[in-house]
Amino acid sequence: MAFRLAFAAALLCAGIAVAQEIPPGERRSGTDFMSAETRAIQADDGSNPGMLWVLQGESLWKEPAGASRRSCASCHGEAATSMRDVAARYPAFDTASGAPVDLAGKIDQCRTTRQHAAGLPRESEELLGLSTYVGHQSRGLPIAPPDDPRLHAARAEGKRLFETRMGQLDLSCSSCHDANWRGRLGGSAVTQAHPTGYPIYRLEWQAVGSLQRRMRGCMVGVRAEPFAYGSAEFIALELYLAERAAGLALETPAVRP
Amino acid sequence: MNAPLLAAMVGLAVPGTALAQDAMPRPAGITPGEATEGARLVADRQKSLCVLCHSGPFPNPHLQGNLAPDLSGIGARLSEDEIRLRVTDMKRLNPDSLMPTYAASKAGERVGTAWRGRPILVEQEIEHIVAYLASLKE
C-alpha cells in the first residue's frame, strides 16, 4: 500500500514535469554541460575547428558570384558592421516570400535573387561556410527574437511541434529537453537544446553542421521520419527555439560532443 | 488533479482491480524466457535502448543513462508479472511515462518508415528480458 501511494505521488510529479517550460533564470547553453576539454577547444579560436568554416565563409563573402558578378561584400560592405546582430534576430519574417525565413534561407535568397547565382543546397560547404561566417558576427550578443506579429502563428506551431510525441519511441522534444535536461541519455548530457552555437562543429560529425541537421539527429533517434531541410516545420521549430533561448549569448561556431 | 493520479487513486479504492492492473501474466503461446538472452537484450543500446535511460548491473556503467530508476534488485522489488507489465507497456500505469511501449506499436506521429507498424520488441524478446530482470535480486 505504501508503495502504491509512493507510486501515485511519483506519477503526479512526472505529469507536472512533462508540461513545464524552463524558467528564464535556469536557461543554460549546451556549452555549460560539456567537459572542460571540449569547452577549451571551443573557447580558443586557434583550436576551434569551426573557425575553418568561418574563414571559408569570409572568402566566399568577398568573392564575386553569379550572373551579377557581385560579391556579398559589394552590397553589404564589412560583415563585422553590416551583419552584426543579424543571426541573433533570425528566423525573421520575409516580406518577399510572405513567410518566416531562417538565416541560411535568407543567405540563399540573396545568392539567387541578388547575385543571380545558382541556389546553395542546405548543408553544402558553401552555405555552411557563409552561415557560420555571418553567425560569427553575432558571437557574444544575446538571442533577440523579433516581436513581429507575423511570426506568432509559426512560433506557436514550433511550440506545438516541440511538445508533440513523435516516432516509434513516442517522445517529444520537450520530454527530454524540458522535463529531463538535467539528466543523461546513455553517456550524453541531455541539455536544454538551445540554438546558441549554430552552425556547430560536432566532434561526432568531424564537421560543421546546421541546427536542422542536429534536430534531424534527435528525430531519427526517436525513430521518427525527420522533417525536410528548409521545411516550414523546421523553421517553426527554430522560431520557438529562439524564443526559448532569448537572452542567451550566441557562440557561433560552438563545438559539441 | 491530473489523469494518471486519478487513475491510480481509482485503482487504490478498489482492491483487486489495482492488483490486476499492476501485473500481466505470460501471454499464451510464449515460452518462459532465458535470462542470458535477456541480459544481452537489455545491454543492447541500439535495439532495446533500456540502458539509454536506466542504470543497473550491466556492462559499461559510464554509458548508462539516469533518466529512470536503477534496475539493480528489480527482481526483489517487483514480481515477474509486474515486471512484464512494465516492459510491455509502462503507459498503462503512467500515460505520461518517458518509457516507450515495447510490445504494441503505440507510437507517436511520423514514425520512420523502417519502424512503421512494428513493435520495438516482440513478445518472446520481452519474455527473455522479464526472466533476466526477475533474476536481479540485489
TrEMBL record, chain A:
Residue positions binding heme c 2: C173, C176, H177, C218
EC number per UniProt: 2.8.5.2
Subcellular location as annotated: Periplasm
Signal peptide start and end residues: 1-19
Cofactor: heme
Keyword Iron set for record: yes
GO CC aspect terms: cytochrome complex; periplasmic space
InterPro entries (UniProt xref): Cyt_c-like_dom, Cyt_c-like_dom_sf, SoxA
Highest rank taxon of the organism: Bacteria
Active site: C218
UniProt catalytic activity: S-sulfanyl-L-cysteinyl-[SoxY protein] + thiosulfate + 2 Fe(III)-[cytochrome c] = S-(2-sulfodisulfanyl)-L-cysteinyl-[SoxY protein] + 2 Fe(II)-[cytochrome c] + 2 H(+); L-cysteinyl-[SoxY protein] + thiosulfate + 2 Fe(III)-[cytochrome c] = S-sulfosulfanyl-L-cysteinyl-[SoxY protein] + 2 Fe(II)-[cytochrome c] + 2 H(+)
Keywords: Electron transport, Heme, Iron, Metal-binding, Periplasm, Signal, Transferase, Transport
Pfam families for the chain: SoxA-TsdA_cyt-c
A GO molecular-function annotation: oxidoreductase activity, acting on a sulfur group of donors, cytochrome as acceptor
Gene Ontology biological-process entries: sulfur oxidation
Record: residues binding heme c 1: C72, C75, H76, C110
Amino-acid positions noted as binding substrate in the UniProt annotation, renumbered to this chain: R214
Cofactor note: Binds 2 heme groups per subunit.
Domain Cytochrome c: 56-143, 157-249
Protein role: C-type monoheme cytochrome, which is part of the SoxAX cytochrome complex involved in sulfur oxidation. The SoxAX complex catalyzes the formation of a heterodisulfide bond between the conserved cysteine residue on a sulfur carrier SoxYZ complex subunit SoxY and thiosulfate or other inorganic sulfur substrates. This leads to the liberation of two electrons, which may be transferred from the SoxAX complex to another cytochrome c that then channels them into the respiratory electron transport chain. Some electrons may be used for reductive CO(2) fixation.
Subunit-structure text: Heterodimer of SoxA and SoxX.
Sequence similarity: Belongs to the SoxA family.
Protein name according to UniProt: SoxAX cytochrome complex subunit A
Provenance organism: Ancylobacter defluvii
UniProtKB/TrEMBL annotation, chain B:
Keywords assigned: Heme, Iron, Metal-binding, Signal
Molecular functions per Gene Ontology: electron transfer activity; heme binding; metal ion binding
Domain Cytochrome c, chain residue ranges per copy: 33-137
Domain of life: Bacteria
Annotated signal sequence range: 1-20
SUPFAM superfamilies: Cytochrome c
Protein name: Cytochrome c domain-containing protein
Organism annotation: Ancylobacter defluvii
